[in-house]
User: Which sequence fits this backbone?
């Protein structure tokens, strides 16, 4: 019954109001704050940076977020190198956890994730052994999360690189640029 009502409202919106199906789906889409709750994600309040820099800087309608790492639920970072201490699936999970850290930093800066227009650009860095060559697939753990939370507006331009080390020996570090609504 509930699905029938939703389908009817969708058809009504498309036919009567004469808008495209993509526009109609956006009208019925859930907001990022709701999606985070549905996904069971708990965002921590980030602590102050450990040095003389900011976690986020807003310039006009863009927010530049400093690199974050995979913070576990116990408040400790995942530590180790991909291809040595972590396999591919664990590394992809580390990228997802890093995405959660970035969402927390973004929310701390802007107050409400519903004010995000889109994720613009991402740089993903993977601490890996020299033989490892699936860096971009590891960073998919982050990118998939952004689409889960923001829908089509979570899709972004991206670079993914492998490095010989990262701060604190974390397996993944990611930074991003976000466009805010006016």
Assistant:
């Amino acid at each position: 019954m509930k699905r029938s009502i939703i389908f009817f409202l969708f058809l009504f919106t498309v036919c009567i109001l004469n808008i495209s199906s993509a526009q109609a789906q956006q009208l019925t889409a859930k907001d990022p704050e709701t999606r985070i709750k549905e996904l069971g994600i708990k965002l921590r309040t980030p602590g102050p940076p450990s040095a003389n820099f900011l976690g986020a800087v807003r310039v006009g309608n863009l927010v530049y977020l400093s690199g974050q790492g995979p913070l576990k639920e116990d408040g400790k970072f995942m530590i180790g190198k991909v291809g040595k201490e972590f396999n591919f699936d664990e590394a992809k999970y580390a990228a997802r956890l890093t995405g959660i850290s970035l969402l927390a930093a973004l929310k701390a800066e802007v107050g409400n994730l519903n004010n995000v227009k889109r994720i613009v650009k991402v740089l993903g860095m993977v601490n890996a052994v020299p033989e490892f060559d699936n860096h971009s697939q590891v960073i998919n753990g982050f990118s998939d999360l952004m689409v889960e939370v923001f829908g089509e507006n979570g899709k972004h331009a991206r670079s993914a690189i492998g490095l010989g080390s990262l701060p604190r020996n974390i397996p993944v570090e990611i930074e991003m640029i976000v466009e805010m609504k006016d």
